[in-house]
């Protein structure tokens, strides 16, 4: 476990330890965890160039104004887009690629609790955001991430530690309840990161992180009597366990910038150098400094039980089938596995 104090000390060195002009892309940044992490990054980095994506123009403009006050030396670009559609993801990526040859950080939090809804491209809406869109952003922006000279990192926020059975007959989780959906989606995300790192990009870091109990605003999309009752029932639990949103941003900034999460095959320190007594994290495959990390909000790695689940999904071929399924869906929708 890395203490919050050590995380804050590391974050305080961002301006002096990392190069100026870092390029970051935040997807799902107009509220919740993405928003607080975006602001933390903007306030700490030297002359950052930041692209952030959300669905609401008014919030995007408000946040852009806030960022300009936090750090007037930065450059901020808001892109209004519904990224549940892969063609829209491609549009955003093409825009960024037209302006930037390198990207240092890709930070992904887009998601929804709305289920039983299909996108125009034939994807189950929550999985379109939580899995397909995030994966599409990663594979599209791999060339720019590879070219970065210092920090090179992808962070995706999800239900880490909840990985469990994957049901290949229902990749999109159309017929699943929440008890099946969460472990299914969590495993798909971690397996996808492992596959991309192995096939394409061992030279930079991938982090799948569980943020803990955080009030994100995602539940505001839910309507009806059942969600209303659920919110009331869980209110005491949230009050007891909830992590303040600003603290969450500090933790996420540490994960996005610390050398505790090095690339798998790189000998270069990628991120803020570690403090005394802090060592490289254990990867999702059980390897110290493995390059792909599945961590909780304290920076702790995957448990032995979860590694066993992931290992079994690799050995029985589910991981390979997932990789091929994802590429097939991208080809069906856009005509290519990546732009």
UniProtKB/TrEMBL annotation:
Instruction: Tell me the InterPro entries matching this sequence.
Output: NAD(P)-bd_dom_sf, SDR_fam, Sec_Metab_Biosynth_Oxidored
For this UniProt record, give its keywords in alphabetical order, as a comma-separated list: Oxidoreductase
Pfam families, alphabetically?
adh_short
What protein does this entry describe? NAD(P)-binding protein
Instruction: Recite the lineage of the species.
Output: Eukaryota, Fungi, Dikarya, Ascomycota, Pezizomycotina
